[in-house]
Fold each of these.
Amino acid sequence: MLQLRKLSAQLLGILVIVLLASCTEQERSHMIGITGEVDQAIAESLSFGIIFPMADPSYELITEHAEMMAQTHNIRLLVAAPDEANLEQQIRIMESMIRQKVDGIAISPVDAEALEPVINQAIDNNIPVICFESDAPNSKRLSFIGADNYETGRQLGIATNKLLNNKGMIIVGTGMSDMLSLKQRLEGLLNYINEETEIEVLQVKYNEGKKDIAIEKLEEMINEHPHFSAFLSLDSVSSSASILIWKAAGMNRYVLSIGKTAESETAIHNGQIHTIISQNEHSWGSTIIDTLMKANQQTVIPSFIDMGIEELNTTKQ
């Protein structure tokens, strides 16, 4: 059996093991595969695909847990992501997996509406599709794995209000402007802050899934609003940018972030992040594999698999 190495941040944008044969060179970024012996309980081994919005270290833990679960059940796993958030590449990767006739696909769609037709195409070809992290609720997808993103944004607002004692000024960084989960998080945050607190939202800026833009936008907000009280990050790219800037500049303002990653956990221990609102991302990988297995067994699965919301901070870890 081919043993799959642990992914590292340095390899996230590189083609590692398995190429989807019909993809272009640009589309083949960050694709990996596992092969396993045929399980005697089934006629042939299953193959599942996982499609991330982009190659980013924040998805390492999900991948690792999915790999372990897949190996346990002799499932061949394809994990794919564009180098950077890219709708067209996500569509082409999805189309390639459909042509390969994989037995199930899990996708975190960068644009729910635009990806709806290709998700429906997979379902029409008898390939189960589930969404995770961000949903495509109007598609034929079978289930969504994640948490209520509106409520997640609201919980970030509640944590901010407690920390700032109902006063102060915040700046906000977020990722892809078309990604449904990020829209919902921002809506939940702003509705709570504007309706239930005296906190002023100074500015919101998007990075479109690119770390260099996230750094640039955060530096702009800091320069334009030097008296801000806290920076709120709605995505892992914004969070990573804040960690880098806080380290370099020795900033002592609060950072509150959505999404638990290895990097953000280290930052909370080091005091660069005060609060993390987690959607229990560490459980997504195994849940994805389990759900796709159930779909192949014709087991009825819920349309929403709620992974819950957890708050972590410097006093509660």
Amino acid sequence: MVLCPNLTFRPRMSVLNEAQVEQIHQATLELLERTGVQVTHPRALELLDGAGARVDGDRVHIPAWMVEDAIRQAPPRVVLGNRSGERKVFLEGDKYWFGPSLDCIDYLDPLTSERRRFVSDDCRITSTVADGLPNYTWVMTIGMADDVPADIADRVVARQVFTYTEKPLVFCCKDVDSVRDIYEMALLVTGGEKAFQQAPTCVHYSEPISPLLYYDPAVEKILFCAERGIPLINYPAPQAGSTAPATFAGEVVQGSAESLSGLVLAQLVKPGTPFIYGAFATVMDMRTTVFSYAAPEMSLMVAAMAQMAQHYQLPFFGTGGCSDAKFPDAQAAAEATFSCLASALVGANLVHDSGWLDHGSVASPAYMVLVHEILDMVNQLMAGMPISDDSLALDVMDKVGPGGHFLNEDHTYAHFKDVWYSDLFDRTVLDEWRAQGERQFAERLRERTKEAIEHEPVSLPDDVLAEMDKMAEHWE
């Protein structure tokens, strides 16, 4: 007799109730209408004024109806593809996808533990590691190349990513010319505009300046992306007590307003522009003044904004897997676990910064490997506990009976691989650990990272590589 159907429940977390979500929404509308945002870009001012915003010099007051119209016009899902055109990352609802971050100035060598400036070849290594680790479903450019001219460094690292991983790229760059060049590389590797629109292989990341300010180059990039249908992240970085109110609710309201103001502009350029909402809302540590990448309050505000995104039916750009520690040590592991689990539980969609150390200043391949292992644990929990006749196991328990064992049962053979077995964390007994050389965690992490670096990504065709060489000559 069937006792129950096959039921699966995924764990979930909420930090706001429905009434609080509505309060934050109404406060966001009030902030945009009463206080507004500062914009100096002439075309943006013309678009906003013509659509019904109240423009007073460089202060733009955006009415509530205009914000809500923009939310309705934006697509509720954005699908990203790899460079082969396969649709891989589905940003919708509470699905989550983790990826490493961008723009670190330093690099922590995983084999020597030397810390130095990040150079372009380091991006080859970090891209290769990200390509080979399946829990990272998309990538960023990881660092800022210190060994090439600053004017072309953003293109150089983007080229490295396109070359050494097939996964979708989120990129940041200095101006609209850089966006254009990186977009042209994306068209080259995906096979043209039609293929790109079917499954965009890159997303542009742009930032308003907190509090409530847009500088012209950022506006130029928003306009360019909207015109061409390039998915756009508009992601401010408010800091509680510094560039945002000291209260967490106030900071969420400000970050939401800053992100949605960019949504309004993008939808005015082209209704239906793919847009990803969010804000990196965290605290200023008043003892050190750092912008903390691992404060528990950061995860609280990420969760709150993820709920706002789900309320708006907009894809969300989240944060997790980063640390304020200097090395991939116990502090880094604890902070990564906390933020990764929180982001997964709330369904934070495109979760970035996995593998960042020292409050966003150093890229570490070893830490990328450690966070990837943590994500294995997170994914195991998030899979939930399926309930069915087979999983309830009444028949096999009845067969074995009191005092027996299950080692020889077919049921055990069918299910023992449901358990997660780590390639990094040690479960051996003490004598076995000693017999295997007494390798401590740091040594095991170094060996596992070396294996990840030796991964061989799928190569781009020779003609594509040759065309990239020509593009690079144009940058120079």
Amino acid sequence: MSATRPTWVDVDLDAVAHNVGALTFDGTDVMAVVKADAYGHGDVAVARAALDAGASWLGVALVEEGLGLRAAGIEAPILALSELPPGSEEEAVSASITPTVYSKGGWERLSAAARAAGSPVGVHVKVDTGMHRVGVWPPEAAAAFVSEVVAAGLELEGIWTHLACADTDAVTTKAQLELFSDVLDDVRRSGHRPGLVHAANTAGAIGFPEARFDLVRPGIGLYGIEPAPGVGSDLDLRPAMTWRSAVAFVKRLPAGRRVSYGHRYAPDRDAWMATVPVGYADGYPRMLSSRADVLIGGRRCRVAGSVTMDQLIVDCGDIEPSPGDEVVLLGTQGDETLTAWELAGSSETIAYEIVARVGPRVPRRYHGGGGAA
């Protein structure tokens, strides 16, 4: 627990290690995706646990994320999953952050950075096979693009794509993989041999063996959360995050007494109300107002009224809580469990957002896997 505030996140690094093992398939390496501060879990600690468990690569979204891992002493290969912003090439190359490229401007700037560094630079070419976010488009242009990249003095270390619907749409996913296979054939016919081929996020790795290629890139599964409810339920993925707080204040209110901003909630009977020091500034969604439960004393208690910036109120019914009682916002207490997907359903979002939005003012405590970063 924080010395100054009784709201924190526990991260089980042994669960992370277990999930790496569950998502490791014969003949396929693992890239642990630790972007967005490891989906809110803490990137340095998670990266170390994942690497110790057998992951061979790390994936980040931002150059700054890769630099932070390097500053922490992590030497494993790191792939920047988006093209480097103009002006960041020399710093990224100096830190041995492997760039993704998919535009002429991207490879031209990297070629200049490689010449300035006086050393070869390996890149991964990303091809758009249907996500239509970033990547070489149309896919039929990929072989020519790769030839330009190599002619510019860059090394083709890898080629990859990203699956848009692997958790929900097998037809679309198979079409993307067939298109990617055609791209690989074209690239090889043009005389190029990428060192690594990869396409599978968590859902792709679980549901489509043909998507695994040389490397899989688990993100959400690394943290023990299914990419969609039921997808990967047979893998025994173990949630790594438990979000806790403690009762700060208790009062007894009569039936009908309205609470919190807007007076949008009133108990229908006399009830004990507990104030908990966590709010939307910490990443607890305001959308959960009067819609979600928390766990106190091993039982579910409904969030009462509007979630405020720093606090929320909980209807505990006839059972009187005490200041200091543990409150679980996400995770297990006794026989009850609140999953990220449950909270996501109550706030009309996805489980990814629930964990990734837990803010930096919520301390992380690490257990197992060698301890904290």
